[in-house]
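Please check our next protein.
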Amino acid sequence: MTTLTPKELATQIGTDPKTVRKFLRSTEGLDRKVGKGHRWSIEAKQVKGLKSRFGKWDAARREEIARNAAARAEAARNAVEDPETTEDEVEEVEELEN
């Protein structure tokens, strides 16, 4: 049985190891999870299915990032346009940025 590391899997699916590990920890990743502190071991025969699931997961992740960026930009525009912006509203914008 040939196994891959997250770094090797990342190369095969066209991303970086950190993103692969996030994906593997997500509900869309591997069916079985490794415990805290253990190393990932991905069977070579799983690559095709993981690549497909990764593509869907990554697209959804990127859409969420874009939505959050748009919401932050809108909140910032509203704060600038409204001279009576409250401190709570400013804190809300700052929270969205983090």
User: Anything to note?
Assistant: The first strand starts at residue 3 and ends at 4.
